[in-house]
Amino acid sequence: MKKVYSFNEGNKSMINLLGGKGGNLAEMTKIGLPIPEGIIISTQACKDYYKDGEKISKVLEDEILVKLDELQKQTGKNFGGKNPLLVSVRSGAPISMPGMMDTILNLGLNDKTAQYMIEVFKDSDFVYQSYYRFIQMFSEIVMGIDKEIFFDLKKEMLEKDNYTHQQLIKAGKEKYREITGHDFPEEPKEQLFMAINAIFKSWNNERAKIYRNIHKIDDNLGTAVVVQQMVFGNLNEKSGTGVAFTRDPSSGENHIFGEYLLKAQGEDIVAGIRTPEPIEKLKEQLPDVYIEFSKLAKKLEQHNKDMQDIEFTIENGKLYLLQTRNGKRSPYAAVKIAVDMVEEGLLTKEEAIMKVDASTLPQLLHGNFKQEAIEKAVLLGKGLPGSAGVAIGRVMFSAERADIRAMTILVREETSPEDIKGISLAQGIVTVKGGVTSHGAVVARGMGKCCVTGCAAIKINDIKREMYIGGYTVKEGDFISISGYTGEIYLGKVELSAPQFDKNLKKFVKWCQDIKRLKVRMNADTPADAKLGKSFGAEGIGLCRTEHMFFQKDKIWTIRQMILSNEPKEVKAALEKMHQMQKEDFKNIFTVVEEGTVIVRLLDPPLHEFLPKEAKDKQKMAEILGVSLEEIERRIVNLKDENPMLGHRGCRLAVTRPELYNMQARAIIEAAIECIKNGCTKLLPEIMLPLIIGAKELQFIKRNIEGEIKRVLQENNINIEYKIGTMMETPRACLLADEIARDVDFFSFGTNDLTQTTMGLSRDDSVKFMTEYYENGILKVEPFATIDERGVGKLVKLATELGRRTKPELEIGICGEHGGDPQSIDFFESVKLDYVSCSPFRVLVAIVAAAQAKLKAYKGIDYKWI
Amino acid sequence: MKKVYSFNEGNKSMINLLGGKGGNLAEMTKIGLPIPEGIIISTQACKDYYKDGEKISKVLEDEILVKLDELQKQTGKNFGGKNPLLVSVRSGAPISMPGMMDTILNLGLNDKTAQYMIEVFKDSDFVYQSYYRFIQMFSEIVMGIDKEIFFDLKKEMLEKDNYTHQQLIKAGKEKYREITGHDFPEEPKEQLFMAINAIFKSWNNERAKIYRNIHKIDDNLGTAVVVQQMVFGNLNEKSGTGVAFTRDPSSGENHIFGEYLLKAQGEDIVAGIRTPEPIEKLKEQLPDVYIEFSKLAKKLEQHNKDMQDIEFTIENGKLYLLQTRNGKRSPYAAVKIAVDMVEEGLLTKEEAIMKVDASTLPQLLHGNFKQEAIEKAVLLGKGLPGSAGVAIGRVMFSAERADIRAMTILVREETSPEDIKGISLAQGIVTVKGGVTSHGAVVARGMGKCCVTGCAAIKINDIKREMYIGGYTVKEGDFISISGYTGEIYLGKVELSAPQFDKNLKKFVKWCQDIKRLKVRMNADTPADAKLGKSFGAEGIGLCRTEHMFFQKDKIWTIRQMILSNEPKEVKAALEKMHQMQKEDFKNIFTVVEEGTVIVRLLDPPLHEFLPKEAKDKQKMAEILGVSLEEIERRIVNLKDENPMLGHRGCRLAVTRPELYNMQARAIIEAAIECIKNGCTKLLPEIMLPLIIGAKELQFIKRNIEGEIKRVLQENNINIEYKIGTMMETPRACLLADEIARDVDFFSFGTNDLTQTTMGLSRDDSVKFMTEYYENGILKVEPFATIDERGVGKLVKLATELGRRTKPELEIGICGEHGGDPQSIDFFESVKLDYVSCSPFRVLVAIVAAAQAKLKAYKGIDYKWI
Known about the structure:
Chain A contains 35 helices and 29 strands. By secondary structure, the first copy, chain A, is an alpha/beta fold. Chains A, B: This is Pyruvate, phosphate dikinase. Chains A, B: InterPro entries: ATP_grasp_subdomain_1, PEP-util_enz_mobile_dom, PEP_util_C, PEP_util_CS, Phosphohistidine_dom_sf, PPDK_AMP/ATP-bd, Pyruvate_phosphate_dikinase, Pyrv/PenolPyrv_kinase-like_dom.
């Protein structure tokens, strides 16, 4: 099998074999762009290299030399001889990766070829500069010598009186020998094979391995090596080098955007020694080149059907393109470019939909810090990105002191349901413990608030009301700025950019809605949530949690009384009060939703969560119930679970206390009847049971609830449609889904809990040790952020198949955190769920991801993020 | 299809159709025993009855009447006419069940047939007594009238001066009309159909439904009805009735054992109004009958190949058998009878093995309270049977006060690892909280100690050192007696019977060992455990938990130091100390086991469990580490998990702190090397990793451990065989078993944790609410006692198949609590595991159950417990 290719032997479809750089260069050559000639040593050669014990085989060596001969013929230049062929050598994996060996320029120079170069270019300054740069880059890239050593050496030499270029070169080579113990390789072919060897080796350096681990890149892809004829941007004033985008990557505006330097090689721009000029200036300096570049840029964009990021070099007035790739862009630009390209006729809507990374969309709704402001700000520390958005506010360490006017950022060891009100009043939340699916993060996402979780670097001193982080002491009332995109925490106020939910985004989302198959519902517990999610396009409510309703100050005492009283009369009275409150809550939500599905999950958390924690609240409770404080404490302790996640919660509450769910079912149906009578005739209330483990359990509870509903309908002399379904959040329920399906109208996977039980892993506790799991490559995805397809997903797939086998019309969806995660949505599309449900601020993400998932699944259209 | 059968048309194999009684009567008829003739209305008729809306169809009625005609011809008697045919009517389900309608005797009597009876028997007393009994039984069984009403009525009538039999009958019928509003049915056929109807209806009464639920009996079996010619034990002094066993059900001795009454009907024995005579006395009173009975009893035993429990009636010197069934017997007798019957040539060893209920065997090892002593004792309350055996001792409420000489029964709210030493010194353990697989119960079973858990009726007052239970106050130091078989707690000392591990049991177990396929290993953490289990026949250790080793007083401080210190040097020193301790522990255990497998599970519990809980211990810890008490408390809190079961434990400890498992692996291999050098050349140490969730995690840990082992082997210049395996205790591990199998030598299902995660159910917390699950028939088995085959079992089966698909030679076993449960062992045999492992005192149970499971699976031999 062939392992070495000329540029004109390849094309873009061969990226797996030729690497990203190689494939693109071949493609550009194919469409007739001015590309300096070159050859590509394939990724297969790299794989062989490792198979052969990290050696370049004789066979490969010979193949490279044959191609090198061809290159000499094509260019009319000689590698190591007169009219010298110099080359750049670069790595080029199929997927772009930092940490790999980068670029060596001017390879092929030695004392002899330097003289030949002077003969050709008549400019010894240029040649020796190039020669020294080669020595420096070779030393750095191949031998790992810090380039600063060569900068210092050059400075030192320049200060000498009798400085000559030759002396500098000699000193450089001596430095090389001093450090490596070997002579600097004079022979160009030796230089070349050392460089190729180093690039192959760099595929497995630590940084590259970690990067692949984090970005889920297959360790067996291997890298290609691109060997390309040098062109010289540093030759004279009619030469130069630059980088440009075909559109503005920040605003998305359709004009060339970039910068360049005359009399410079590519490294000069990256190194930042000289300040580059904006591309517009080239129009004045080299107008012909600018016109040609504009033409080629457009051609490349048309050809690749995407905004391009192009590297170019001008050698003595002639333009060469060195590299092109799809350009990175801001979320705002991504949407605008996608929409513009459809309107320009360049893309179909389907293609355009694939061009936007759905997960970045919340940034458009929340705004973000300005990049330049971040660069100047003091970074205190970094936690996990708990909920998207940014926030600026004053640190408060107690939920009770949170104040909406004072711009609070609530900083807590961790949050509990008692903090809900404080969270609702805060600009943002920071927790020391807990992961991206901890209580604080979930509540924050639900409320669309920015949240940073698990910032273990913070030490809070509650007594002094201050915290210590990153060497700073931050007192309560001091300003900080936090980013829920990155988890970063800054001192003081960092300047903001504005939110950007504009007409382009609206248009884009509409296309996605038209194309997607999965329904997108929202998780909403309040009328405000429901209103927000609806405005983003949610198709009803997929999860309305009833427990959050009780955490409002006045309601909590009623449920506490219901739980803690031993007097049947008191319990009954409390239940009746809860019934009235819940009915009111449901009416308010139903009224906002107006029509379609509202799935209400009956009470789920352990009752213990509702109970007073502070002494004064316990005392108050004792007074309300007329028993001793000791007795209250005893009752509270009795209700405590060792493992609350696996304890007395969910539908288990309704097995021991059927009156609880009966009350809730009554409130839901009564509220629905009133709303339907008031004109919401298309409202469809659906009742969902949490934590089911088997069919008999479900039947028992359903029988009770349906009895109650029948009574409500009789009392009101009306018949309305309603559904009863179950959450699927225990492995056992999934394993027995065929039996469970018989008695329900729908399944809703609770993938948070299902992940916890399937992996035997508490999401709150996991943050304490999961870092090591990611660092050691044991887990590649955060299983509470992106569904663990191979484990948890296997159960989802199994349960879906079993459920539909029993009842083909069964509606099946998911309402865990994964409902708003694009990669997870891909999976849910692949197993043909009917809907996903996510927090209001993730609705747009889910709509776009659902459209993309469908296109991938049905049309084979895919897209690799740059 | 035929629905009504004469006795001579059936046999024992038709029990599903004819019910247990009917099938047996037909069988006895078939082999020529003196059985009063009769007919059987089949279970199919019962099913039809329910299908037809609880009605006896005309077709069935006609079929019954045809058979009734035949019966009249066979007996030469007339139903409702001269020479009257009287019948008994009984229910007879395929499985014996209390709660069903029982027996009606003398059906067919009315004023006219009573006169005809007097004509036949010339004894009006006898006839009217029978008549009144019929009215009473019919009223009770068919109409649900309390029989006491008829006893009272009779007493009242007898006191009257002008008492006549006729008046009594009339008064009885009037009472019937007064209560039911209907006349007592005079027509015998009406009586018969009312009785049949009542029996069919009783199949679905509440008590029967609950019983079926608890005993996992199919609700659709239905009951048969047996209608049989009456014979009269109450006719004269040469008549009588009795019950006898073919062997002594308590000692197993091979002689007839039973009792009888002359001039009595069966009811008289049951009612307990007259005291029956021992069967030996019949030899004097009716020698011919006794000889015939002895002959028939032996014949029945030979025919049924089991000890029989026979009901008989003598009418005027003629012996009739009314019923026979396999007799209930004590565990001791069960073993003796099984062994004797093999030696008598009556049973094969295989058949004998099936005759013993394996789960009762621990009683033979522990002894039990004498029945007569229990009847006299004060029952204080009842918890759950946590660990088999009985114990008598003084109540102590603190593990620190437990004293082996003082005969302590430790009574705790719940036990924690800190109580281990106290438990080891106690006679028995009682906990207020926790189920049969709670910490206390597991530890107790491991130590072979009696334990009662979850006795919620106990209120402990730690300050007064007393507890309140069942209306009594029991002070520390008072004696109580507890039964780990029943969960019962008695006041004072209850007299004991002796343990009975005799030659019969040894012989029986040997047969089982020869036949079983599953290996039976023991769970043993100490040399004492290992010695005990080995004496019962355990084939090595299937689970040696390393954590328990650290709870001995002097060792706990070392591990605490290792956990809590932040000084690398201190941590290292503590680890080294632990290493030496562990090595010593392993050497001691290996030395006892001598040869074969010892599976050591590396550290499993959350580190938090080892930390000090009491203030003085925290203070001591602070002093040891030279930091503030506040700092110690902070470190302890930081290590606490919200859900310890799903938290930082198991192999997760080795991902964050690889040195821990490395140290343990070193200690195991070093200990093994020393033992092997000392002559235990066949010792095979196996290292087991807990809580694995995936292949990469396993590889990461295995790589570390194997590196350490390699170093140990090099240091010792030796090569020994060892294995590395994994526990399978998370659903994810089961789902990915094919990948995991690649890197291990064995799987060991940890079905305790696997049950918890699969069901999302904490075993300790579940006791608070599972009662309602059993009462409402939602769960039929306690999933921590008997494996949940349909849920958890599905994962076990899947993982076994996946694992073997990757590696056919993979050894697969189970080391959860289910390893000692016969029903679970049946399941493990059916999925072809290689071994089970259980606590030493369950080893015998497991050996017998494994033999039975194999016989069931391979030879189709089965046995229904009586």
